Amino acid sequence: MDENKLIHAARHGDIDAFNRLVLAYQDTAYTVAYRIIGEPDAAADATQEAFISAYYKLDQFHGERFKSWLLRIVTNACYDELRRRQRRPAASLDGLENVTFRPDPDLNPVPESPEQHAQRRELNRAIQDCLDALPDDQRVVAVLVDVEDYAYQEIVAITGLPLGTVKSRLSRARARMRDCLRAVRELLPSEYRLMDE
Amino acid sequence: MTGNTLPDRDLELLSAYIDGELDDRSRADLERRLAGDAPLRDALADLRATVALVRELPRLKAPRSFALDPAVHKRRAPWWKRLFATGTVLQLSGALGAAASVVLIVAALLLNAPGTEEERALPPTPESQPTQVGFAPEPTGPPDTELRLQATATQAMPTASPPPVADMALEEDDGMAAFGGEVAGDAAGSAPPAAEMAPPPGTIETFDAAPAEPLAAGQSQPASEGEGAAQETAANSIPSDAEEAAPLFQAEQAEQPAPAATTIIAMPTGTATPAGPSLKGTLAPSATAPDVAPDEATARDIAAAGEAQAQNEESDHRWLAALGIVLLPVSLALFVFGRKKARRA
């Protein structure tokens, strides 16, 4: 069924239609949440809250791109979760432990040797750690642009930030990521070695 | 370290350049700079490698289904149904309706209350005049005049069963004699209270036809003319002073803001507005009924018209009250129903 028809049906109370939208976007929503929050359980909770919130806020959807509208709700849910974690630092430590020991599920598993697989996991963890080290506002922009490959105008729509703010936050986030990844250069594949190495 | 010393502006330009978000002019300017600036080129390469690494991050699979449970998340009704389902609208409309009905009822009661401006504005009926006078004596006139007016009003009461006119005329002489005597006694001082001097009610019917004229005349005369002039009876002075008395009363009417007392006096004569000649016509031949009948008929017509108008307005007011009375329980029921719904919700 067409996405617009699903949205229309869900807006009129068809929860099955809404669940079809959930199934279509839950991987994207969870990925964004995980990249922003950096902790799987909290990311799952934020994703679930975002879908529930989206269901009850469908009246506020006015025909823009549904994915952007949904990711705005996901981003807000992530901000809420991050604020909760800042109020309860102990919980965030538990989350970090979970991240360390929980392997990232991969949607597109490529046939690789166990050694390659282990190396890739380490690299992914290092990148995620660098992402986690970013300030929240820079991390959100970096995830949306570099992980989800959104255009700047879509970031403006999702975050509600001015275009100039998006650009400046993104450039600062990338500069920090560059510096962070230099610290784990031994994990980087040769093609990704940075220029000063 | 390459790029660490780059200004923020250059970092933004390089970042936007990687994403293809620069306009043509900015991109051309940056490419010119990149061609001649090796550190800038190195910084661009570093940023590109960083972005490529982050973009290599795998997309994640959701650990579980985030589909909503229909049992927990009930189907959403349209907004207007949800609005009514909460009972808020019902409560609000019920409260507003109850308030409106109370306002309607109170307004109807106030509009139907006696002594309102509307009723005062109605043409006074002969039956209603005495009571009106009794309830609202005007304090603006001289005290003796007011008392005389009251006396006149009380004397007008028996007109429903008037004594024979001949008797009245005879009694008038006696009454006026007594009146004149008393007036003479007090003539040098302030005018005596007319109520005290007033003859018994039954004897004043003719006096009531022209009570004001002698009084009005006596009000000014006793002080100036002395005892002899004061002893002149009302009956004798009426014909001669009637023409003067009417303007005097008209002057009093002009002085008094509320016309109640004035109309009271004028109406029994049947000639409220006309001056002397009309008064004469009612005063001198007061013993003849035919002269009074047309005036009474006119007064009756006016009274009937006033009553009809009053009834119409009263019926309007009753409609208001009826509407309020009907609306009140309906509104209260709405309110209670909405409250129950809200509690359930």
Q: Could you describe the 3D structure shown?
A:
The complex is a heterodimer of chains A (197) and B (345). With 197 residues, chain A is mostly helical. Chain A folds into 2 domains: 102 residues, RNA polymerase sigma factor, region 2, helix turn helix motif (Rna Polymerase Sigma Factor, Chain: A, Orthogonal Bundle), CATH 1.10.1740; 91 residues, Arc Repressor Mutant, subunit A (Orthogonal Bundle). In chain A, 73% of the residues lie in helices and 0% in strands. Chain A is globular and about 55 Å long. The termini of chain A are far apart. By secondary structure, chain B is mainly α. Among the domains of chain B are: 48 residues, no CATH class; 173 residues, no CATH class. Chain B is 72% helix and 0% strand. Chain B contains 16 helices and no strands. Chain B starts with 7 loop residues before the first helix and ends with a helix. At the A-B interface, helix 2, helix 3, helix 6, helix 7 and helix 9 of A face helix 1 and helix 3 of B.
Task: Give a short synopsis of this structure.
The complex is a heterodimer of chains A (197) and B (345). Chain A is mainly alpha-helical and 197 residues long. Chain A has helices spanning 3-11, 15-37, 40-56, 66-87, 89-101, 114-133, 136-147, 152-159, 163-182.
- How confident is the prediction overall: mean pLDDT of chain B? 63
Assembly state of the chains shown: heterodimer
Please mark out the parts of chain A with pLDDT under 50 across 5 or more consecutive residues, or reply none.
91-108
The total beta strand count of chain B reads 0
Spatial shape of chain A = globular
| Helix and strand run of chain B | HHHHHHHHHHHHHHHH
Q: How much beta of chain B, percentage-wise?
A: under 5%
Count of runs of 4 or more consecutive helical residues of chain B: 16
Q: Gap between N and C termini of chain A, in Å?
A: 52 Å
Structural class of chain B: mainly alpha
Euclidean distance between termini CA atoms of chain B: 64 Å
- The count of β-strands of chain A is 0
Helical percent range of chain B? over 70%
Stretches of chain B where pLDDT is under 50 for at least 5 consecutive residues are 127-249, 257-290
Number of helical elements of chain A: 9
CATH superfamily of the largest domain in chain A: RNA polymerase sigma factor, region 2, helix turn helix motif
